[in-house]
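Predict the assembly for these two chains.
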Amino acid sequence: MAEVEETLKRIQSHKGVIGTMVVNAEGIPIRTTLDNSTTVQYAGLLHQLTMKAKSTVRDIDPQNDLTFLRIRSKKHEIMVAPDKEYLLIVIQNPCE
Amino acid sequence: MASRAARKRDEDSVTEVGEGTDEWAQSKATVRPPDQLELTDAELKEEFTRILTANNPHAPQNIVRYSFKEGTYKLIGFVNQLAVHYSQVGNLIPKDSDEGRRQHYRNELVAGSQESAKVVVSEPDLLEEEEGPKEAEAETGSQTDVPAAEAAEKVTEEELITPKQPKEQKLTNQFNFSERASQTFNNPLRDRECQMEPPPRTNFSATANQWEIYDAYVEELEKQEKTKEKEKTKTPVAKKMGKMAMRKTTFLESQSDDITKVTQAAKIIERMVNQNTYDDIAQDFKYYEDAADEYRDQEGTLLPLWKFQNDKAKRLAVTALCWNPKYKDLFAVGHGSYDFMKQSRGMLLLYSMKNPSFPEYIFSSDSGIMCLDMHVDHPYLVVVGHYDGNVAIYNLKKPHFQPAFRSSAKSGKHTDPVWQCSKSYSSQFLDTYDAHNMAVDAVSWNPYHTKVFMSCSSDWTVKIWDHTIKTPMFIYDLNSAVGDVAWAPYSSTVFAAVTTDGKTHIFDLSINKYEAICNQPVVAKKKNKITHVQFNPIHPIIIVGDDRGHVTCLKLSPNLRKMPKEKKGQEVQKGPAVEIAKLDKLLNLDSSQPASQPRRSPEAPAHTEGTLWKPWQACVSLCIQAMYLRVPPSVGLSPAQVCLFVSYSVSPFAFPDVCLCLCIPPCLLAVSVCVPISECLSIFCVSLSPSLSLCISLHQSLCLTPCLWVYGSLLFLPVFLHGCVSLCPCGRLSLPSPWGLCRCLRLFCVSLCVCLAARRLCLCVGLSLYLRLWVSGSQSPCLWG
């Protein structure tokens, strides 16, 4: 358990990372480093998007599965790593 | 029915019909019922006229029919007065009726056909007689026909049919139909209802995608397998345990924090974040191929990629490096200390190239790690050898340290799991070679050629051996203690050697037997000594560990990974080996020489090419100048004098330089001739100001480079300072000597010369400090140089 905590801390303190959050299977955020309203917004929207992406990948080949999702925008990059029950979202500003 | 109905009506008319009651009451006047009308005699004698009509008293008098024509109900005037009192259906029909006639006709036909049949079957004599009475009455015919009919019954039946058919077409109903209908008793209907409480409801919605179906099937399969397993291991104890375990697991699940399940995702995210941060390095790793290698004449470079370091291992030197045989991006770093006086703890870190900021696995131990290796078949097993002589095995699958301690007799040196090395001699299990003068640091077999191996030692040399021959085939002197050597996995002629001065040398015997095709400092500070080097099995990268605990990953440029050209019919792998054998044989003819070539060989190209200089480099050269001055020196070197000086400078990086310079009084021209080995021919042209002189040097390649020599003199006579800065027409600075004009670099030279003057002879001994500054980005050679 401490390992995961450490990993999350490392991620949060990594260069360029704006925020991290852990969202459960229903789209409810469990842990976050951002403020409430932003978190809720991100959680809701990204949860849906991840489900859609996962459904797409698996529809094409049911033995395949989504590993991660990256959305690169002008301002920053949103990275989503889905798990069986949880969703880990990290927003980073790639240093460029 | 109708008769019965009529009868009933007559009987009932007593009470029903209004007129009837009155008549009956009056005819029975003698008997006085109690409700009889009390009438006077006059009224009694009144005569009432009654008329008998043939009307049916029971017939309705006011039948109303709906007239569709007029659209109203209309009274019908004419009413049927017929009253049927009795009727019965009989079975006699009148002769003249249709039915009677038909029957009669039919009977006649029957008789006639019988006769004709008789004619056919019996003797033809009777034909005329039979035909005669045929037309007679049916009765007479029938009588005579009877015996005939009986005789020829069967035939007549057939005959009967055929004459009947054309005459009689209409078949009437022979049966007496009567329609009967009856209505069953209709049971009264009853509605019975019952209402219960509605069952609890929930809304359920789902999608049926391809993958949902697949998942359902997979679940089913798993369930089946589980049940199979349960059946196999069925004991009451096991059941109990199972239940307990189940309970425990459920308990734990509800208790444990949700965070532990995010482990996998967190790992992935960490790698992604690192990928973003080190994006350019990752891209370089994958795609960058140094294009300048084409111009570099077979030499290559090492491109620094990631740097791996961990705070916990900061003080510890890297003592071992090993790539994982299965996962080509995972490597193990063993930390310990080479200082035999100071021994502290050790660490084993496993890094993945996908995450350069934090190791994947960390293990710490009490004693320093000296060597490590990974199991080929079970890539999760790592064996390490400690300084205190213990050997431990770590299982990466389990999170805890699992040692299998075995103390060994050797008290920790570089214990390669295969080889044992001793201090003074390199010894095989079969043989002993007199190899090195000092400690042998590493020995390694060639991965392709089974006879060849090499060894490196702190005596600055790397030697390549053929194990059947006692003397080494090749010896390389690297000017510094060699920490480690490694063969490249992709070619049998390429190997790398790392030295304690922070340089990595890469040799390719098929390209250049005597020299490195790349030597490059790879660690930032000169204090860092590189301790180990390893090639990655598939990627063109090497990892280099130093004594500060840092591991640097470098990419080999294309020139360093040249594959030998495939010859027809020969496998590529064996090719280089064959080549080596050839070289071997060649050298054996000349085996007395140790084949160590000085780096300053005339044919060799300039060594400074192909090396990435550190941002600055200094060299000190000793310069002895003898000057003959026409006028004894009073103020340094005056341009108005004729002076002849010969200088010889020696420096570790420079060629011996002999320079002859003559200054002629007009001070416009000075000629200096340098001996060819310095590759430089300088022509001095002394200029106006007394302490400034301009010199033009002519390089061997016939390019003119002006360089500015600034002379200054200090108060102390015997000492004069001269500095030189040269300017290259390409805009960058270069120095004519001692490096030659091969590189345009910023060079500053400060030299301190002590002059001993005796009359007109002046002897100067000077130390020059040449400072060479690397201008980053200016790797391409100067057009003038």
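Chain A is about 40% helix and 30% strand. Helices of chain A lie at 2-12, 36-60.
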